[in-house]
Amino acid sequence: MRLPLPTAGAPWADLKARLLGLASGDVRWRDGKAAVYVFNAGPEVEQVQKEAYALFMSENGLGPAAFPSLKRMEEEVVGFGLSLLHAPDDAAGTVTSGGTDSIAMAIKAARDYTRQERKVAGPLNIVLPRSAHPAFDKACAMMEIEVRRTPLAGYLADPAAMGEAADAATAMIVGSAPNFPYGLIDPIAALSDLAIERDLWLHVDACVGGYIAPFVRMNGTDIAPFDFELPGVRSMSADLHKYGYCAKGASTVFFRSAALQRFMVFDFKDWPGGRMVTPTLAGTRPGGAIAAAWAVMNFLGVEGYRAKQALVTEARARIEAGVAALGFSVLGDPQLGIVAFTHADIDAVAVWGKLRERGWFSGVTTEPRSLHLMLSPIHAQVADAYLEDLAWAMGEAAGVAKGEARYS
Ligand SMILES: *Cc1c(COP(=O)(O)O)cnc(C)c1O
């Protein structure tokens, strides 16, 4: 749809008012009404994100020689992630624009490694559990790599099925920590054993878990090993803009060694513009996202993250107890910030639609039909209000036949 650009510009004050007007129809995430899309660690963190982002908004991560500031910040952010995820001394990482970018670049590295080091010339495949994120499929669609999704066992990756699906042309196997649909950590130790035994590249997708699991563990929850502590893990993705509470446009991708990371970097000079080296999918990289990540991580520190993640755990525990009392069953045994729950008699998707009428915006899981919440610290304040509205929505949805309600 064409729209003529206004001939004369407008004053910023008017435009700001119009922007705020546009936002008035959005989900009220600052009030804790969104359990998807936004990770809300409160107004203090939001202010740090904003001010740090604004300070480096014009700077460009494409030019580390021009902006040693951003290079230094990126090194420190990557260093924090590597240390939280038990990476060996020689490990390396990069800040990317998001989980999709991190995953695509890990696959690119694994592909080039498979071609160059393992000398596989023909078509390649990757093997992933059915619950793995569609970002893998998107990247494989772009790189013409076959995706083999294997059935789950108890909502988790089934290492035996994955072993059967893998062959000499398998460039990567994947486990999630946790998977998005259920919030459950796959049996990464068994996948690591498989990777070592068969010399496969194991990627752990910790996009939504990488910056919460270490702190939940420090807070006392017994979380099974899922990171570089396991010797078969060659690469990991962990999103800063999720439970790292950083501004959007920030994720990290990590490799067990700098040598493996080199397969990710795109280095090109056969054009008139000179040599261009880009580690990620992007060319221009927003300095603001890197600066905001650096600032939030230093603002929170280990203690701050532990406190925020304790609130997430508290919200999840209260919601788990509350939904169980309403007759729902929680899928599996979630330990982090995501929980999905289904009902034997009432259609969860119909309930989801009713909750939207009261301003609650969450996700749904379709196998089985369930409500899906990705919780933030703010939800510790609104868990009871949510449960009250959930009870109301169940009454409203009771007459809807199972499978009838639509979610998109
Ligand atoms: C969010 C998510 C991704 C993709 O990250 P984006 O930042 O949305 O591109 C990948 N994997 C998992 C498990 C995720 O939760």
Describe this structure in words.
The model has no long low-confidence stretch (mean pLDDT 97). The chain is globular and about 65 Å long. The chain has twelve helices and 15 strands. It is 40% helix and 16% strand. It folds into two domains: 51-297, Aspartate Aminotransferase, domain 2 (3-Layer(aba) Sandwich), CATH 3.40.640.10; 302-394, Alpha-Beta Complex (Aspartate Aminotransferase, domain 1), CATH 3.90.1150.10. With 408 residues, it is of the alpha/beta class. The chain has helices spanning 12-23, 43-55, 68-84, 99-116, 135-143, 159-165, 188-198, 213-218, 258-261, 287-325, 348-357, 379-397, and strands at residues 92-96, 125-129, 146-150, 152-153, 156-157, 170-176, 202-205, 233-238, 251-255, 266-268, 276-278, 328-330, 338-343, 363-366, 369-374. Strands 1-9-8-7-6-2-3 form a seven-stranded mixed sheet, sandwiched between helices. Strands 12-13-15-14 form a four-stranded antiparallel sheet. A two-stranded antiparallel ribbon has the order 4-5. A hairpin with a 2-residue loop joins β14 and β15 (369-374). Pyridoxal-5'-phosphate is lined by residues 98-100, 103, 133, 135, 176, 180, 205, 207-208, 239, 251. Pyridoxal-5'-phosphate (PLP) binds at residues 98-100, 103, 133, 135, 176, 180, 205, 207-208, 239, 251.
Give me some keywords for this one.
single chain; 408 residues; alpha/beta; seven-stranded mixed β-sheet; four-stranded antiparallel β-sheet; binds pyridoxal-5'-phosphate
What's a quick, concise take on this entry?
With 408 residues, the protein is an alpha/beta fold. It folds into two domains: 51-297, Aspartate Aminotransferase, domain 2; 302-394, Aspartate Aminotransferase, domain 1 (Alpha-Beta Complex). Helices cover 40% and strands 16% of the residues.
